[in-house]
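---------- Forwarded message ----------

FYI, see the Corrinoid adenosyltransferase record below. Original note from H. follows.
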Amino acid sequence: MKKDARYSCYPFMRERASTVDFEIRTDSLTTHIGVALAVVKKEDVQAVADDLMQILPMAYHVNGSVRGKLAVTDEDLSWLSARYDFYVRHVKDEIQNFVLPQGTEAAAALHLCRSEAKKSYRTLHKVSEEQEVPSILFDYLGLLANVCFVMAVYMNQQAGIAEIPFMSKSYPMKKKKVNNNEETI
């Protein structure tokens, strides 16, 4: 008797290899990007919405690039790097410190994307302990996490919401000179 497909949410669920964990994690990343896109559209910040429309299918390309054919190119990485530079130019003053993941709904959604990209990177590391993984996938996921962060700060900036610096009680913070005075960052 043929197994009914309605009971299978993903054909590789019972695999032992970490590949399936990576695919599930990057599916979650892609879903979070879709949610962030919906919220960004409501907040009407076109540059971020346009960029997320480019990033959304790329997250699925990252997903399939381990089990299937590598679908992330140097051009994809260069485009994402240029978008990072764009946002950093706008928010460089706000990102000098660690900040709390707060602000607009879109900023919060983008912080979730940042976190999901980091989890995807970590899961990809587990895969790399079992098989060869193209280094461009690590580069793309690491950069994607950083792009999501600067996008979140940009969304807050566009809404006039100040970032709230996070001061760790666990780790020593660096000191920087500001107008001949030392300031902890």
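H. also flagged this: DSSP finds five helices and two strands in the chain.
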